[in-house]
Automatic annotation (TrEMBL):
The keyword Signal applies. CDD domains: serpin_mollusks (cd19602). Keywords: Signal. InterPro entries: Serpin_CS (IPR023795), Serpin_dom (IPR023796), Serpin_fam (IPR000215), Serpin_sf (IPR036186), Serpin_sf_1 (IPR042178), Serpin_sf_2 (IPR042185). Residues 1-18 form the signal peptide. GO terms for molecular function: serine-type endopeptidase inhibitor activity. This is Serpin domain-containing protein. Residues 35-393 form the Serpin domain. Gene3D superfamilies: Alpha-1-antitrypsin, domain 1, Antithrombin, subunit I, domain 2.
Length: 394
């Protein structure tokens, strides 16, 4: 039944060196994929959070077992056609670098849970273990609480219990071939924390003209920002300790400008422009405290983006995983959570792929007040990888 490659991504913070060109190509591909996905999953939601890194990495892991047109569609949609097989080497380097980070709590975990009753292609198991450092375990069909429980427990442990019960009871049985798990967890302290005593309830202008209340954090500080008048957006960078990771706030200059910003993100290369050209400015900063949890079913979105054959019982070609049964992706689920508060930001995500067989202190004279809908990015400034992306509309 379910060939559940469950992928939950766990992030760590600090990358070492490596093939810079490969890493830039990988981050560019993942960024472009993220903006295409945003257009499919976020436009109709007031608040959303997802991990481009988790989803892109999970699908890349799965592509190790894809062949023929199935492999071609995955590579094209993920934007890694030019990287070819080096995609997996680039991820291997990236995982090593992320797991070496010191200044923030960032950890990544990959695992495969295998039903050895199926004749799996050993090369696939070896490649996932080698390139993605995946831990290999057996699916325990007789596990107390069901075979899903050990996998859910693994995900919860790797994400500090932020992501729980990804696999529902009954989703794994004797026909499940394999479950792939990828987890990402991030917990960073602001380089410059907000004072809790300055947080006050404040008006927030919602889409459509309504006004609600949010807990707004305030501070006076020097911050890197830019005023992009040509595109009608202001961008602020809030770095975490160590400076490698930052939360970027892309705030439309118009109160009702979030739709125009979302259209801008759909233009190739525009999202990368948001992170360039920022300069330090002394200002009054106001940013909402918020906590968002999102669960997405990605089948339809991924089909729309070009991954079609992988979901087809008759056309899918995953013979690189097993040749003893016809398997295809039955479901891709993603669950993510983020909490932004005075001390810092914590975020986690899990992607589940189910496969079925058959300085100078000047007085502030500027403001950055995020009192209307905005888009945000939690980004690795060293590699350019967008670890988390979302929207806040109050």
């Amino acid at each position: 039944m379910l060939y559940l490659p469950l992928l939950c991504l766990a992030v760590v913070s600090q990358l070492v060196s490596g093939d810079q060109q490969q890493q830039l190509a990988l981050s560019s591909a993942a960024s472009a994929f993220s903006q295409q996905l945003y257009q499919k999953v976020a436009l109709d939601k007031p608040n959303v959070i997802y991990s481009p890194y988790s989803i892109h990495s999970a699908l890349s892991m799965t592509s190790l077992g894809a062949r023929g047109d199935t492999a071609t569609e995955l590579a094209q949609t993920l934007g890694v056609t030019s990287l070819g097989a080096s995609t997996h080497a680039a991820y291997k380097e990236l995982i090593q670098q992320l797991n070496a980070v010191k200044d923030v709590a960032l950890n990544t975990g990959n695992a495969i849970f295998v039903n050895w009753n199926y004749n799996l292609v050993q090369q696939f198991v070896e490649d996932v273990t080698n390139d993605y450092f995946a831990k290999s375990s057996n699916i325990d069909l007789s596990a107390p609480g069901g075979p899903e429980k050990p996998i859910n427990d693994y995900i919860a442990a790797k994400t500090e219990n932020m992501i729980q019960n990804v696999l529902p009871r009954g989703s794994i049985d004797a026909s499940t071939v394999m479950v792939l798990v990828n987890t990402i967890f991030f917990n960073g302290t602001w380089d410059h924390q907000f004072s809790k005593y300055k947080t006050v309830s404040q008006d927030f202008h919602k889409v459509g003209g309504a006004i609600g209340k949010v807990d707004m954090m305030h501070d006076e500080r020097t911050l890197k920002i830019k005023r992009d008048n040509s595109n009608g957006v202001d961008v602020a960078e809030l770095p975490f300790k160590g400076g490698r990771f930052s939360l970027y706030i892309a705030l439309p200059q118009k109160v009702d400008g979030v739709s125009d910003l979302e259209k801008l993100l759909a233009t190739p290369g525009k999202v990368d422009d948001l992170f360039t050209g920022l300069s330090p400015v002394r200002l009054n900063l106001a940013l909402p405290k918020f906590k968002i949890e999102t669960t997405l079913t990605l089948n339809s979105a991924l089909r729309d983006l070009g991954i079609v054959k992988a979901f087809s019982p008759m056309a899918a070609d995953f013979t690189g995983i097993t040749q003893s049964a016809q398997v295809y992706i039955s479901q891709v689920l993603h669950k993510a959570m983020i909490e932004v508060q005075e001390t810092g930001t914590v975020a986690a995500a899990a992607t589940v792929i189910s496969m079925v067989a058959l300085s100078v202190q000047l007085p502030p004279n500027q403001y950055f007040v995020a009192d209307h809908p905005f888009v945000y990015f939690l980004r690795d400034n060293q590699t350019g990888q967008i670890l988390f992306q979302g929207k806040f509309s109050g």
